[in-house]
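This follows on from our talk about sequence and fold. I would like you to pick a protein and set down its sequence and fold. Go ahead and set the record down below:
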Amino acid sequence: MARVAGVDLPKNKRIDVALCYLYGVGRTRAKEVIEKLSGSIKAETRVKDLTEEQVGLLNTILTKEYKVEGELRREVVAHMQRLTEINSYRGHRHRRSLPARGQRTKTNARTRRGRRKTVGVGKAASATGKN
C-alpha cells in the first residue's frame, strides 16, 4: 500500500482516483500532478503497481508544491479562528454552527445544524404521565 502525505492510498484504484483520498486533492489537482509526472507515471496505473521511486516522486511534488492534509487543515482552522476573533458576520455564523454563505436556515440547514432538537416534548410527556 502506497503512503503519500501520511495517507494510505487504496491498492486497487487508479492513481488519478486514489490521489483524491488526500485532503485538498480533487480530480483536477490529481490530473495536474499526474501531468507533471507524465514521464514516470500514467493515469491508468494502479496504486499497487507503483514503485517506491514513483511514490517518492508523488510525495515530494504534493508536499512541496501544494498544501495538503495537515498543513491545509491547520490553515483552514486558522482562517475560521481569525474570522471568529474579529467578530465578523462569517465568524459569528461559524461560532453558532450555522451556514456562513447566505443559505437559508428555515429549512434545509440540517447538515450544518445537526439533528432536529424537538422543543417541549419532554415536559409535555412527563406532565401527562403524572396524572
Observations:
- The two ends are 64 Å apart (CA to CA).
- Strands lie at 3-4, 7-8.
